[in-house]
């Protein structure tokens, strides 16, 4: 995918893409701003050892577009953006690098607000904030929202409740078996909500620390060797909570679940997978709808963070998901298509107001 439309078929549609480099600290970052129709672009910074610059660019373009749709459906007056830092955080992350990155964020003068994502954490945001005003997901000590995965998981749980109601007639996972792929930031909190709701949880993770946490905290969770073992288990709901692309041409034919609701971004490996899911009778609840709790949490910082207010807003993901599933049925389209239509409608309707001259 390119940034500009060179042949009429492969444009990303982004407003702005910024490449940032600081040789001394080793910073190599890309900031993608997809849309500011609803307000400043908000989205996290992913720190990841991509195979190539092209792979980093492709990821930031995809992620920032997703944030525009996510923020629109979350009811936020914020546009969509995302950033990636290219490198292994375990090897190259440093105070100097993060602060250099913060200088680049500041240079955009509020067009982009950053936050945590894969490979970045609350302490990193506190360091970045020493160089820029435009950062969320800060620590509680600095007036921030803290760990945004708390409300991300809460929102995924609400979306799962709505999907359960749509599929089985009751907004509860009690008596259902849920398979979680990834017990990291979001997956571990989601597991807790499901156990409390009376669900049977099956899970897997590539990180032994995460598995040890599960054994110690929720010994009733059944752990399996890998994702293939998970998706071929007798599960009712599949919850991808690791990296994107979890639903592809290899995994979808093997899925035994009737519902897919997870915290990972960009779960569909390519366009058309949603049709394959529908053909198999599997209800896919769009990831950017149900995992919006985290962005709701960090966005609340902009007006002065209040956890209860943010949680109430994140609880609204239940009604948003319910609305999308009903619209999909009424219009005979996949839920992913229905969600896109609602997001695009809000961006057009509210974004249009910015054209009214205020003097």
UniProtKB/TrEMBL annotation:
The keyword Cytoplasm does not apply. Transmembrane segments: none annotated. It comes from Paractinoplanes toevensis. Residues 146-355 form the Glutamate/phenylalanine/leucine/valine/L-tryptophan dehydrogenase C-terminal domain. This is Valine dehydrogenase. It comes from the Bacteria. PANTHER family: LEUCINE DEHYDROGENASE, VALINE DEHYDROGENASE. Gene3D superfamilies: Leucine Dehydrogenase, chain A, domain 1 (3.40.50.10860), NAD(P)-binding Rossmann-like Domain (3.40.50.720).
């Amino acid at each position: 995918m390119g940034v500009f439309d060179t042949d009429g078929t492969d444009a990303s549609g982004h407003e702005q893409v910024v490449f940032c480099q600081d040789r001394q600290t080793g910073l190599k970052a890309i900031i993608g701003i997809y849309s500011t129709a609803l307000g400043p672009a908000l989205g996290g910074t992913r720190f990841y050892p991509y195979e190539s610059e092209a792979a980093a660019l492709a990821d930031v373009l995809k992620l920032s577009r997703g944030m525009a749709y996510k923020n629109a459906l979350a009811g936020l007056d914020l546009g969509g953006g995302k950033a990636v830092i290219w490198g292994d955080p375990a090897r190259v992350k440093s105070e100097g690098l993060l602060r250099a990155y913060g200088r680049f964020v500041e240079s955009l003068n509020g067009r982009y607000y950053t936050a945590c994502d894969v490979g970045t954490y609350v302490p990193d945001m506190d360091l970045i904030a020493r160089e820029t005003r435009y950062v969320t997901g800060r620590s509680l000590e600095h007036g921030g929202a803290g760990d945004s995965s708390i409300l991300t998981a809460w929102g995924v749980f609400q979306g799962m409740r709505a999907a359960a109601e749509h599929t089985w007639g009751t907004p509860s996972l009690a008596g259902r078996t849920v398979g979680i792929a990834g017990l990291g930031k979001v997956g571990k909190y989601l597991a807790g909500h499901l156990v409390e709701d009376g669900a049977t949880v099956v899970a897997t993770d590539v990180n032994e620390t995460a598995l040890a946490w599960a054994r110690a905290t929720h010994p009733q969770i059944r752990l399996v060797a890998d994702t293939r073992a998970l998706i071929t288990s007798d599960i009712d709901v599949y919850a991808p909570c690791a990296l994107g692309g979890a639903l592809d041409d290899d995994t979808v034919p093997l899925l035994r679940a009737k519902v897919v609701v997870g915290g990972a971004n960009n779960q569909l490996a390519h366009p058309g997978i949603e049709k394959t899911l529908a053909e198999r009778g599997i209800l896919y609840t769009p990831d950017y709808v149900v995992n919006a709790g985290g962005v709701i949490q960090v966005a609340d910082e902009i007006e002065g963070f209040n956890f209860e207010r943010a949680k109430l807003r994140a609880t609204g993901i239940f009604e948003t998901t319910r609305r999308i599933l009903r619209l999909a049925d009424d219009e005979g389209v996949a839920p992913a298509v229905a969600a896109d239509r609602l997001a695009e409608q809000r961006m057009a309707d509210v974004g249009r107001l910015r054209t009214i001259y205020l003097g």
